[in-house]
Design a protein that fits this description.
By secondary structure, this protein is of the alpha/beta class. About 35% of the residues lie in helices and about 25% in strands. InterPro entries: Class_I_gatase-like, Peptidase_S51, Peptidase_S51_cyanophycinase.
């Protein structure tokens, strides 16, 4: 009888040790996964400008964020512009006027399927990469799935600040607003309707994979476009950045900088109702974020 009791107690103890060991193993695995996730986060920042004029105060913020006055340099990518030389000139000018030496600013007008290896290496090691305005489709036609894209992402991963204005803002998203409409192909700049399957999205750089960026937002009254995009892309946060305004993104947080507001639209209930080519949605979440305020991504 005593032997049976001892055996039973031994089995219970063994079971307790085994169960606790399993709990500890699961906890260690969870901790390791969390550490791996944190270690894979980019060390850099995104400075996303909604277009229009860039006040000196906004450019100064960019200089400080990217440590451009210290031992680093900037690379300007003008491929979105039809006048790349002018884009490089004016982008450089905004920095030199605030005391940055011209030697610290490079302009690389990469061509499709023809890139200079030394320039790619300089791009990957830059402290600031600045993408000009123009046409985001033109930029991505050159950059998508190319060594240029790899170099930008490597720089961002290693601590660089990636900045862009107007078209250079749009390309930051994984899903990029092209500016075109499927149902109204003649471009006017006005988005007068909220229709199903109308707003064209293409693949962007993917530096933000859970948000879609729109630019010139309040000035050009692009709310209809963002509403349409939010309803049809409920897994993404839709962000409208006004002119002379930027968001500074670091990991899962964004801060509004500059002159005006940023609109944040979320379809948190994944609501989508279609009827006769129109789309609707219930309980979309709208926030108007002021300069100096932060929001989560």
């Amino acid at each position: 009888m005593k032997l049976v009791k001892i055996t039973g107690l031994f089995l219970l103890a063994l079971c307790w040790i085994s169960c606790n060991s399993g709990d500890k193993s699961e906890k260690i695995l969870e901790d390791e996964q969390q550490m791996a996730k944190v270690s894979n986060l980019p060390k850099g920042k995104l400075f996303i400008i909604g277009g229009g004029k860039r006040p000196p105060e906004l450019v100064q913020e960019l200089i400080e964020v990217s440590n451009l006055k210290n031992d680093t340099y900037a690379v300007i990518l003008p491929m979105a512009s039809v006048e790349p030389d002018s884009a490089v000139f004016y982008a450089s000018k905004q920095f030199t006027e605030l005391g940055i030496e011209s030697e610290k600013i490079k302009g690389f007008n990469f061509q499709k399927n023809r890139q200079n290896v030394e320039q790619l290496d300089s791009l990957a090691n830059a402290g600031l990469i600045y993408i000009s305005g123009g046409d985001q489709n033109r930029f991505m036609d050159i950059v998508l799935n190319s060594p240029i894209s790899d170099a930008i992402k490597r720089a961002y991963q290693n601590g660089a600040t990636i900045a862009g204005t107007s078209a250079g803002a749009a390309v930051m998203s994984k899903k990029m607003i092209t500016g075109d409409e499927f149902k109204h192909p003649e471009y006017t700049g006005d988005f007068k309707t909220i229709e199903a399957e109308n707003i064209e999205l293409k693949e962007g750089l993917g530096l933000i994979d859970n948000a879609i960026i729109d630019q010139h937002f309040i000035q050009r009254m692009r709310m209809n476009r963002l509403i349409s995009t939010a309803i049809e892309n409920p897994d993404e946060i839709c962000i409208g950045i006004d002119e002379s305004t930027a968001i500074l993104v670091q990991n899962d947080s964004a801060k509004v900088l500059g002159a005006a507001q940023v609109i944040v639209l979320k379809n948190i209930n994944k609501s989508k109702i279609s009827k006769d080519g129109l789309i609707g949605g219930r309980d979309l979440q709208l926030s108007v974020i002021l300069p100096g305020e932060k929001f989560a991504l």
